[in-house]
Amino acid sequence: MKNKVFIACSIDGYISDVKNSLEWLNSIPNPEQNDMGYASFMTNVDAIIMGRKTYETIAKMDIEWPYAVPVFILSRRLTSVLPNLNAQIELMKGSPNNILQTIRSKGYNQLYIDGGNTIQQFLSYDLIDELTITTMPLLLGGGSPLFGPLINPLHFELVKSEVFLSQIVQSTYTRKR
Q: 68-81, pLDDT tens digit by residue?
């Protein structure tokens, strides 16, 4: 059983800019559409736990729903999702431990944790086993931070580092327990 993160951030640790935009993710030309390991990562995912803001950002994009696995949206506010996604999405609320217990009881064990607040919450409960962070070579100077306050430090071990497009660094860490 693993809870994994796969996310991009700026050098200064932001996952969206001050306008809550993700356009900066396209600041490096990628003519061959290199997915930087995302498709491979997704082959080892049973389900996704996603925050409300991330869901709303994806739902507003002019694309088809990009996930083939079940998605659990964490929200205290949402009462429904887009009608065409009812079969793929389940709304949940509660503590990360209770959410994990419910999802694991449904048979899902390799979980992708997505969304800034959701990642921060799971880290604060020490529930992240693996972090894959793709660092874009720019400073945003503000926006939504990837990391938030922790009560105690969490130690991770670097297991892999790769460079994509000659300037984007992707590092994968596992939690040292």
A: 999 999 999 998 89
